[in-house]
Every structure is written in structure tokens, then in C-alpha cells.
Amino acid sequence: MQAGNLRRGLPAQPVANETFERLIERSGLCIERIVSTGQSTPEGEWYDQERDEFVVLVAGAARLRIEGEAEDRALAECDWVFLPAHCRHRVTWTREDPPTVWLAIHC
Amino acid sequence: MQAGNLRRGLPAQPVANETFERLIERSGLCIERIVSTGQSTPEGEWYDQERDEFVVLVAGAARLRIEGEAEDRALAECDWVFLPAHCRHRVTWTREDPPTVWLAIHC
Question: In what order do the strands lie in the sheet with A73-75?
């Protein structure tokens, strides 16, 4: 039985890179935990994904920009967003300390 | 853009039945929020599902019994469990107040 806790094993202080931990991967479904400590999408870059993504902000805080929207969306704990495939988006800010934790589901 | 918050709109006090709110349903993926206020699986009954389920306890507390295991699993906030299709299980207890919130992903 695969099981765990989304807040376990977080870095005690900010680290250089975001960490991506794959929790489940099978038959088109991928569930991962992402831990950010202040990182954001590099200036001028966008995520443009082949698959739909459902993302929940489990802990921390972040700002998300969706292409075509006038302003960033401020995300707080337990906020979720569904990003259809090819919905271009970027993370413009993440809380650094304590870490920001995301649960991302790709299907 | 579909978006929301998993802790929003919770009942102010325990209610008679669990509530199931479908957040996303498309092409084999179903994501729902379940709110429990003390409910459990009726004695002698088991969930036996056709699809895999990934479940996260977003808020509250619960106990989960997996068929074949000697004891319940105590679930706290941010605990997750992956239940493969036909893994028989039952919820033996949920915290009543404030409510217990689950995020369930079926694929």
C-alpha cells in the first residue's frame, strides 16, 4: 500500500531548486508533490503542457499567472486550479520559508 | 478557468450525510471533495471500486481500514493513500467538528 504525508520531509531552510517527487505514476495518471522555496518560473518562460493538470496549494503561498489574464492569481492554502492542456501559465512567486507545497495531478 | 478552495463552504456544524462535490470530471479522471462530519462506512460494508483512487486527508482526522490489515490506519492532515482498484477498504471513523475534508482522485 502506497501512502505518505504531503508535509513530511520538507527542507528546514530554502534550497536552490524546486523538488519534484513522483508519488504515483500509472496508466496516464501522474501525481507529484512539488516543494518550492521562493522559486518562480524564469522571466519570459511559460509552462505549456501536453496534459491537463489539477494543482492544489497544500501549504505556503504562491502567485500564478495565466496567459491572457490581466493579473496574477494569489494562491493560499487549499486553493486549487485546473489547468487544461496547453493553458500557458507561469508561477510568478512562491513563499520561501516555510516551504510552499503543491500537489499536482496530471492526466 | 475552474478554481476553488478545498476548505471553503464547509458546514458550520455536523450534518446528516457526507457531501460529495465533483470538482473535475473528464476523460477518465474524476476529482471530488468529500466532507465528513462523523460519518463512517456502515458496519460490515466495504468500498470495492472499479477504479484506482488516490485520497488525501485535507483537514480533520479519520481512521481507515484496509481489508487484510490487522488495524485501522489513523489519518491526519496531509496524509495520502493510494487505493488500487478493488482494494477493499472502509472508513471506520471521521472527526465530526470541525469537519473532515478529503480530496479524492479516481482514474
Answer: A73-75, A62-66, A89-94
Question: Using CA atoms, how far apart are residues B107 and B53, in angstroms rounded to an integer?
Answer: 7
Instruction: Kindly list the residues from chain A whose CB atom is less than 8 angstroms away from the CB atom of residue B63.
Output: none
Asked whether residue A17 carries a pLDDT value surpassing 90, the answer given is yes
ipTM for the complex shown: 0.94
What type of residue is A6? L
Which chain B residue lies closest to A106 (C-alpha atoms)?
Answer: B29
pTM for this predicted structure: 0.95
**8 A C-beta contact, residue B62 and residue B3:** no
Distance CA B102, CA A33 (A): 17
Cell numbers 488495524 correspond to B71
- Whether cis (ω within 30° of 0) applies to the bond prior to A98 is yes
Q: Over the stretch B57-101, which tens digit does the pLDDT of each residue have?
A: 999 999 999 999 999 999 999 999 999 999 999 999 999 999 999
CB contacts < 8 A, A to B, total 91
Q: Are B27 and B107 in contact (CB under 8 A)?
A: no
Under DSSP, is residue B41 helix (H, G, I), strand (E, B) or coil?
A: coil
